[in-house]
Design goal:
By secondary structure, the chain is an alpha/beta fold. It has a single domain, classed as Glycoside hydrolase/deacetylase (TIM Barrel, Alpha-Beta Barrel). It has 8 helices and 11 strands. Helix 1 runs parallel beside helix 3. The longest helix has 19 residues. It is globular and about 50 Å long.
Length: 267
């Protein structure tokens, strides 16, 4: 399971560490093919995790978080010409009507998709999933706002696309047992975290592990991933360090000084 954000030659400074260039992205797709990796839709992995048909060996799944405009202009054509599926997780507050700009998310300014582009991508067969309404750290939120970020995101997407959406991705990868329970209650049937592990058919479908592809993910590391090396395999128990980091972030959020997310926009 590979997690991408932006594919661009000129990202905003805050997004640059999570951006790969179109040339590098195309090379990575070719490396997957050369290694005999079959890119399958996320739903096939989820079905296997839920006891359905087993996956063949050497598969990969491509996911993209947030909803940057370059998915429409750069990523989609590269995937389409290779016949590859992908799941696009949208922060719905950042998606905007054509000709306008979205301002309903905590993400700093960046070129984001508009609703017409989202509908086109959906029509072309790309899987659209939810990535919250405003991109907060879900595991630091109170019950009311948590429900809104999870359930309202689903309602907005289904109203816009006129069909069910079933897959969610936690902003920043942050989740907890309480967050996963709310995701399940809202009707999402799968959810992606980060963990920087290989996923597997034994992975938790509400905490699917992904490997984050960053600007500094060199070809050697990517080759290791393609070969099934260089990272542990999920599922893995939550570490004490992760629990402590969650407590610290909750305390910081409670006093109005959140940490652990993207840089805050300047006043």
């Amino acid at each position: 399971m590979l997690l991408y954000h932006s594919v661009s030659t000129d990202p905003p400074d805050w997004l640059a560490p999570y951006t790969v260039t179109p040339t590098v992205f195309a090379e990575q797709l070719d490396r997957l093919a050369d290694a005999g990796r079959t890119v399958v839709p996320l739903r096939r992995l989820v079905a296997a995790q839920r006891g359905g048909p087993q996956l063949p060996d050497n598969v990969a799944v491509l996911t993209f978080d947030d909803g940057y405009e370059d998915f429409f202009w750069t990523v989609a054509p590269l995937l389409t010409e290779r016949g590859l599926p992908a799941t696009l997780y949208l922060t719905t507050g950042a998606v905007h009507p054509p000709g306008e700009r979205g301002s309903g998310s905590l993400l700093p300014p960046a070129p984001m998709l508009n609703w017409r582009q989202v509908a086109t991508l959906d029509a072309y067969g790309f899987d659209i999933g939810g990535h919250s309404q405003t991109h907060p750290q879900l595991d630091t939120l109170g019950r009311a706002r948590l429900c809104a970020e999870i359930a309202e995101c689903k309602r907005i997407l289904e109203d816009a696309l006129d069909h069910p959406v079933t897959s969610y991705a936690y902003p920043h990868g942050y989740n907890s047992a309480a967050v996963r329970r709310k995701v399940r209650q809202a009707g999402w049937t799968s959810a992606c975290a980060v963990a920087n592990c290989f996923s597997s058919q034994a992975d938790d479908p509400l905490r699917i592990a992904r490997l984050t592809v960053r600007a500094d993910t060199g070809p050697e590391l990517f080759e290791q991933w393609v070969a099934g090396r260089g990272a542990p395999t999920a599922p893995r128990p939550e570490r004490l360090r992760t629990k402590g980091w969650r407590i610290y972030r909750r305390l910081c959020a409670a006093v109005g000084r959140p940490v652990g997310g993207p840089p805050r926009p300047a006043d």
